[in-house]
Amino acid sequence: MLALPEKDQTFTGWSGDASASPNPLLITLDSDKRITANFTRRPTLGLQPGLRGLIEDGFHFLINGEEGAIYSVETSNDLVNWKPLTAVTNVFSTMPLVDSNAANRFYRLLLLK
Predict the structure, then answer these.
(1) pTM (global) more than 0.70
(2) What range defines the domain where residue 47 resides?
(3) What is the pLDDT of residues 42-78, one digit of tens each?
(4) Which residues, 6+ apart, have CB-to-CB distance to 21 below 8 Å?
(5) For tag attachment on the chain, is the N or C end more exposed, with fewer CB atoms within 10 Å?
(6) Is the same domain home to 54 and 24?
(7) Number of domains making up the chain
(8) Residue 88 pairs with which residues in a beta bridge?
């Protein structure tokens, strides 16, 4: 069985009579089975409208993702060596974040839970 995520979604695993996470999933149909493919909205980082990112008090951006999800925001100066900036729980589907020490660096967002 193959799970195909829609645009802006990520496959997170199977539930029900299949608890494995490989995709595609190999199943043996030797009895009735109920299997659910689980997806989450792919998180994104974006600029806050009207702020244009870097301003006096730091770099302003938005996290867009699933409500209740826990994300790690990481930074890098070279896109190779990543360091944690902060971990946040997304209380709403969109939340603002400010990096007050921003200075020519890259950002990425990782789903922790």
Answers:
(1) no
(2) 43-111
(3) 666 666 565 555 566 777 788 887 788 888 889 898 9
(4) 12, 13, 14
(5) C
(6) no
(7) 2
(8) 71
